[in-house]
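Morning run. Coffee first, then this:
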Amino acid sequence: MSQIDVNNLLSQMRQMSSQVKPAEQAFTAAKPGQADFSSLLKQSIASVADAQTNAGQLALGFERGDAGADLGRTMVAVQKADLSLNTLTQVRNKLVDAYNNIMNMPV
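And here it is:
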C-alpha cells in the first residue's frame, strides 16, 4: 500500500478551490461598459432588419435590370437575410418557451 501525503493533498485542494468562483459572483449584473442581454437582442434585431432591407434593395435592383445588379450577390444576400430571420425566429421561440416554463413553475 502506498502512503498518502496529506500536505500535498491539502495544497492541491486549496489550489483547486481558489480556481472555482463562489456562487454569488456567478450572477453579477453587467458592468456599465459591457453589453447586457436586451441591448444585444436589440442589436440582433436591427442587424436582421438591415439584412432584410439590403436583400430587398438588391433584389429590386436586379428585377429592374440595373447595370450593377449581380445575380450571385443578390442570391447570397437573400439567403443571408432568410437565415438570419430564421435564426431570430428560433431565438424568439426559445425565449417564449423559457417564459412559459417560468410562469408554470409552482411558487
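The mean pLDDT is 84. Good start to the day.
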